[in-house]
Amino acid sequence: MSRELKCHVGIGPNVTGEALVAADNFSARYDLDRINGVFSRPQHALYGQSYKDKILVLNTAKGGVASAWMLHEMSARGIAPKAILYNRANTILAQGAALASMAMCDRFEDGDVTTLFQTGQTLEVRPGDGIVIIQGAP
Fold first, then answer.
1. Which long-range contacts (CB under 8 A, 24 or more apart) does 47-50 make?
2. CB 102 within 8 A of CB 111
3. pLDDT at position 66, please?
4. How many other C-beta atoms lie within 10 A of the C-beta of residue 86?
5. Looking at residue 67, what is its pLDDT?
6. Rama region for 78: left / alpha / beta (φ>0; ψ in -120 to 50; rest)
7. Which of 18, 28, 34, 124 has its CA 20 to 30 A from that of 48?
8. Which run of H or E residues covers position 104?
9. Contact assessment for residue 89 and residue 60, using Cβ atoms and an 8 Å cutoff
10. Tell me: the pLDDT tens digits for 41-76?
11. Which of 61-70, 79-88, 96-105, 112-121 has the lowest mean pLDDT?
12. Cβ-based neighbour number of residue 58 at 10 Å
């Protein structure tokens, strides 16, 4: 069984992967060790955890142009999340996700993404359809 959640139409390819969830905000520039693929800012709820090939579920994006090109850099190195789901994305990070060919969605109809999803769940993200499916959900 699965559960389908609707969101604003996003960008990027369809992907399936494991969720990594925190009610924190996200900056590719200040929160990540882009060489080792882990959250590196000690104050971040996901500190020390790997983001490589995960579907990040976070409150909102923060940061500017440097965060956008860092998403592309991480993707080019093969050390990037598969997707990022936000309550609200900003245009700069949306541009960065597009440049990195990374899936990104926001504005979920059922509420706060940081409570809709749990770390470890398998999510199927379909940005072009504005749908995220929790696989195996009751």
1. 49/20
2. no
3. 83
4. 26
5. 82
6. left
7. 124
8. strand 103-105
9. yes
10. 999 999 999 999 999 999 998 877 888 889 999 999
11. 61-70
12. 25
CA nearest 102: which of 87, 124, 122, 80? 80
Closest by CA position to 84, among listed 24, 2, 3, 1: 24
Rounded to two decimals, the pTM is 0.94
User: Length of the chain, please?
Assistant: 138
What is the predicted pLDDT for the residue at 109?
Answer: 98
Question: pLDDT tens digit string along 30-39?
Answer: 999 989 999 9
Q: What is the dihedral of CA 58, 51, 98, 69, to 10 degrees?
A: 100
- Which residue type does 55 have? I
| Phi, psi dihedral angles at 103 (to 5 degrees) | -70, 140
Tell me the average pLDDT of the chain.
Answer: 94
Distance CA 38, CA 58 (A): 15
Find out whether 81 and 107 touch, Cβ atoms under 8 Å: no
Question: What 3-state DSSP class applies to 85?
Answer: strand
